[in-house]
């Protein structure tokens, strides 16, 4: 998968790194540490220090998704917290952890949202953000996998 272009900047294709937030962190030059974060948070990105802090004690799926989300902030060089930044980081992270092919394949076996997310190794919210990031063409592919022609029930 090619990374999106941002303001005309050529972004490298890191397809080989899709499932490994740690490799993306290395590639981006981001330090990842485990340490306490503010109550109720699972992680944070400290832009001046180019460091992601992940809360201790997260389940593997929480850690993976949180790390990728925080790397999204690093990728876009976000400073501060805004709704726009959160959405951007969430969609970027979901696109790194999931591919359309993988989701289509998995959805044929398990179309229920939470169970599908579980089978893909992501939090349910990530699947929602992934769907929100899809192009019209990609969305159609996923919809057809979930609701193949012929299964339609006419009223
Ligand atoms: Zn965030």
Your description of this structure?
With 155 residues, the chain is mainly alpha-helical. Helices cover 50% and strands 8% of the residues. The chain has 7 helices and 3 strands. Helix 4 runs parallel beside helix 7 (136-146) and helix 5 crosses helix 6. It folds into 2 domains: 17-97, Arc Repressor Mutant, subunit A (Orthogonal Bundle); 99-149. It has a 3-stranded mixed sheet with strand order 1-3-2, covered by helices on one side. A hairpin with a 4-residue loop joins strand 2 (43-46) and strand 3 (51-54). The chain has helices at 21-28, 60-75, 83-97, 100-109, 113-120, 124-133, 136-146, and strands at 31-34, 43-46, 51-54. The chain is elongated, with a radius of gyration of 17 Å. The protein binds zinc ion (ZN). Residues 69, 73, 86, 89 line the site of zinc ion (ZN).
The 3D shape can be described as elongated
Fraction of helical residues: 40-55%
Main sheet summary: 3 strands, mixed
How much of the sequence lies in strands comes to 5-15%
Structural class: mainly alpha
**What is the CA-CA span between the terminal residues?**
40 Å
CATH topology of the largest domain: Arc Repressor Mutant, subunit A
Radius of gyration, Cα only, in angstroms?
A: 17 Å
Helix count?
7
What hetero molecules are bound to the protein chains? zinc ion
Mean pLDDT: 85
Taken in chain order, the helices and strands follow as HEEEHHHHHH
Per CATH, the architecture of the largest domain is: Orthogonal Bundle
How many strands in all?
A: 3
Low-confidence parts: 4-17, 150-155
Side-by-side strand order of the widest sheet? 1-3-2
Question: What is the CATH level 1 assignment of the largest domain?
Answer: Mainly Alpha
Domain IrrE N-terminal-like: 25-113
Protein name: IrrE N-terminal-like domain-containing protein
InterPro entries: IrrE_HExxH (IPR010359)
Organism: Zhihengliuella flava
């Amino acid at each position: 998968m090619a990374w999106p272009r941002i303001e005309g900047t050529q972004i490298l294709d890191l397809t080989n790194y899709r499932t490994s937030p740690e490799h993306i962190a290395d590639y981006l030059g981001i330090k990842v540490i485990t340490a306490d974060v503010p109550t109720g948070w699972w992680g944070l990105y400290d832009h001046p220090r180019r460091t992601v802090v992940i809360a201790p004690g997260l389940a593997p799926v929480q850690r993976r998704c949180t790390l990728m989300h925080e790397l999204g902030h690093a990728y876009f060089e976000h400073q501060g917290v805004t709704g726009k930044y959160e959405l951007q980081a969430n969609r970027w992270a979901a696109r790194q952890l999931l591919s359309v092919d993988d989701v289509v394949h998995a959805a044929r076996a398990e179309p229920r949202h939470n169970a599908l997310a579980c089978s893909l190794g992501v939090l349910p919210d990530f699947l929602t953000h992934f769907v929100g990031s899809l192009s019209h063409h990609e969305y159609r592919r996923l919809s057809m996998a979930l609701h193949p022609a012929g299964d339609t029930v006419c009223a």
